[in-house]
Amino acid sequence: xxxxxxxxxxxxxxxxxxxxxxxxxxxxxxxxxxxxxxxxxxxxxxxxxxxxxxxxxxxxxxxxxxxxxxxxxxxxxxxxxxxxxxxxxxxxxxxxxxxxxxxxxxxxxxxxxxxxxxxxxxxxxxxxxxxxxxxxxxxxxxxxxxxxxxxxxxxxxxxxxxxxxxxxxxxxxxxxxxxxxxxxxxxxxxxxxxxxxxxxxxxxxxxxxxxxxxxxxxxxxxxxxxxxxxxxxxxxxxxxxxxxxxxxxxxxxxxxxxxxxxxxxxxxxxxxxxxxxxxxxxxxxxxxxxxxxxxxxxxxxxxxxxxxxxxxxxxxxxxxxxxxxxxxxxxxxxxxxxxxxxxxxxxxxxxxxxxxxxxxxxxxxxxxxxxxxxxxxxxxxxxxxxxxxxxxxxxxxxxxxxx
Length: 403
Hints:
By secondary structure, the chain is an alpha+beta fold.
């Protein structure tokens, strides 16, 4: 017992030494990041995701981030490039992002052959919605933190008690997400370098604090550490985008984005097995109106639309002229069986999984995708599949049935 007492006494001066006020901490952090000019760091992000069976799933992202301070940048305050691998159950994807006054984004499923995807999508950063997307992707990264620290009034921050990690003293501050009052940042800052150590992102929509993600910043290397001559020109250029890889009018033929097969065309045939081993043969011309649901199991948008697809299936389950199907092309059949059984999705229509040929055959590029086919096998309509669409979809099916 005494040894613990003496251990505490040894830490007492550090724990009780006068804290800097939050204004000093924030100003020093802004200055430390700005004076670094540029640099790189490793990131480790732990996501905590509540599931429909009231448990918590964990997803771990490991990546590298580089930044370059840009005082003229009105969106983020710095240019950045970003490589991250996201792994969660059956979901395994590499993302690459580049922001250099314009915003490039590339994403590729690790199961696919071409990694990383050489085709970058260009987003117009002049649009407010695109700026919001950028901040959303970078909300737990240094670029967004730097931006918020500079622009948020000091009275919006709450100073928390200092703590110790290893042998390092850490300052902590907390503040609300300016874009979402129900989300809170908690930032740990090294007391010597004033570089951030970690960011915890918490949600509290009903007064219950829920930790959503924790991002640890590791292996910081700033301009002076990267360049022996101390020069600031150190931004990692491995992501500098080759114009040949950008979708322009010249390269569109080579790297044309995937599109849905158009309305009015005859649907491709589908031959597959359900997740329980039953044969599925969907052929045009057999006088069936069909609604086909293409989905990913671990996507929030798909989870939100799940009640709608069940409502549609219930509305027509006794009608011989209507069939509803669900396809999970990137998910393992065994996982989808568990998904339906344990996560209580109650999908009673035929469900297929793991066969990716439907992706190219139908031009799938976002999930959930919902397709309506008439009794001649012609594609009638693609739906964005947002919550509440079931009413409109049921109405469209009834029109095809002459009701």
